[in-house]
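pipeline stage [seq->struct] | target=Odorant-binding protein | organism=Culex quinquefasciatus | residues=349
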Amino acid sequence: MTWLVLLPYLAVVTALGVRHSAVFKSIHQANLECQRYLGGGGANNETCGSRCEQLVLRGWSDETGLVCDSYQRYFRPTCDDTDYKNRTRSCIASGWSTAGDVCDRADVSARCCREQYGFLERRSPKILRMPEVLVTSSLRQCARILGVAEGELTLYWGVWFQFPEKARRLLRCLVLRQGIFADDHGLDVDGAYFQYGDNSIGMEEFGESFGRCANRVLAKQYKDRSRSVARTMFQCIPRNVSFTIDSDDLLPTKLHPLKCMKVFKSKCQVGCSSETIAELCHDLALQVSKNSLNEVLQNLEVNEEGMLLPSITPSGLLPKVIDECVTTRLNDCLEDCSQHGIQVICSPP
């Protein structure tokens, strides 16, 4: 009956396997990892093992100390214990008053969590924050999967992945790879917190704010999941500085709606210009250069908001694949970059 023993392990492997690039680790795994790094000493103060363990679990900073939510989620308080947080904080403060270097402080923090916070779940893996370099790698891999060219990727960055549909699909692909989204469950609050939260807001407060906002977005009943994901990520991450890629914001800082509309309008003017569309849709293999396509687009009529209209593209003037690219792009611009579209994106849900 050995297979019965293997079932929980297989279930964990299967569950984690669908999380793509997401990294899950338990304290037990972190301890084994640190034993290898530190030459077999394990998590003890002689080898600075507690600091290593907490660093591996993204639960320690030499500047600020214990990252409480990241490390303490490995401990389960008893149901009737209402003072475990205060006891843990007092224990750490008392221990730090006589601690020496960062290794001593990390050891005190680990000991206080074990003694005061709750039961240690040594083999329970938790999702870890994805490092910036891996976010960049995952995003670029998603771009390759979805056929997003480098020029498109730069443009989608510029509009915070809110339009066109291809940009929203790209963002959905990224959060899938981060392990914080699944089609059958939506966005995972805990995963979103540990990827995008910071020490200025607690996990409980983040969850309440994020949950209320996400429900309001869900109530809008967007037709496609990618749009719902993009709007939720844009509007519901309750923090002041968003996660960055290559020094650029993946998602914008929290902007006042009027400021957001002003910024987004300027980005739309670039993204929906004839020059940008020609850059994205031209194809020299089909003997349609960027300049010649730009000339065609400049002859299109515009609506009262100055948006190019796709309905009067000269029939037969462009190869089908280019005509479809142009038409799709123009329709996306009309939907998302109109005054109403920008208001929808920038207004609180």
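stage status: PASS
auto-comment: The mean pLDDT is 80. The domain at 132-236 is CATH 1.10.238.20 (Recoverin; domain 1).
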